[in-house]
Design goal:
The protein has 244 residues and is mostly helical. It contains 7 helices and no strands. The longest helix is centred in the middle third of the chain and has 57 residues. The chain starts with 9 loop residues before the first helix and ends with a helix.
């Protein structure tokens, strides 16, 4: 039961969840296996008057269990902050899950008897209706978190594309200069090699960050499904074991 009326905490919990994408460099990154080398060609300068590059696919291993657990706890914290005044589905869920992570028929019956003492108006319909509120809040938090991750990924891809285009143009321009200025060919070829090396390394420069973001998006989905599964478990129990 919430002791005080709930305030609008959207800013706080959204910053907390979105932070898993935005403050990556300050966090301990999940341990992941090294992606296997790709058999696809890496980006390279294709030759005179050409800026065509081929992007190797990015392998995204799953995030660590610890990270998924952290996200799940963040979602639970949001539901706690959104707890409505009085006894409802949230308190009923706490009663059950403190008893067992997989409540039995007797657990549901016992919790329901206690619920009716705490809230005489408590019945199946009331519990299921209040469950919908918490499911809605969970979905909002999930969508906001994924949106933050997608925005960060889009920004990184835009940064990568810009730098990749710049490097391609520079390499192409240097090729043209080599043709016109034979007397400076040695210096120009050295500069060209440096630009091409930077271009060929563009994937390795951005892959780790993009993989990390994709990990966190997948972890967000997994964490949300875990909490949603808990809600569904309680809902199913209410429907099966508590009479309307």
């Amino acid at each position: 039961m919430a002791e005080e009326p709930q305030k609008n905490k959207m800013g706080g919990w959204l910053r907390d969840l979105a932070g898993v994408f935005v403050v990556m460099d300050e966090e301990t990154k999940p341990t992941t296996s090294t992606p296997p080398p790709s058999t696809s060609p890496t980006p390279s300068f294709a030759g005179k008057n050409s800026s065509t590059t081929i992007n190797a696919p990015v392998f995204t291993p799953p995030a660590s269990n610890d990270f998924v657990d952290d996200l799940r706890n963040r979602f639970r914290k949001i539901l706690e902050e959104k707890n409505q005044p009085g006894f409802d589905f949230y308190e009923f869920s706490l009663m059950l899950l403190r008893t067992s992570s997989n409540p039995s028929v007797e657990h549901f019956k016992t919790a329901y008897e206690g619920a009716k003492l705490l809230n005489p108006n408590c019945n199946q319909q009331f519990l299921l209706e209040s469950a919908n509120f918490y499911k809605s809040e969970l979905q909002k938090a999930f969508e906001a978190t994924v949106s933050a991750g997608e925005q960060k990924k889009t920004a990184l891809n835009a940064e990568k594309d810009k730098e990749q285009k710049q490097l391609n143009n520079e390499a192409s321009n240097l090729e043209q200069q080599i043709t016109k200025l034979k007397q400076e060919i040695a210096n120009l070829e050295k500069m060209q090699a440096e630009k091409i090396a930077a271009l060929n390394g563009i994937d390795s420069k951005f892959t780790d960050k993009l993989v990390e973001i994709e990990q966190k998006i997948q972890a967000t989905v997994t964490a949300k499904e875990g909490v949603a599964g808990e809600i569904t478990l309680i809902e199913n129990g209410i429907k099966q074991y508590i009479s309307a």
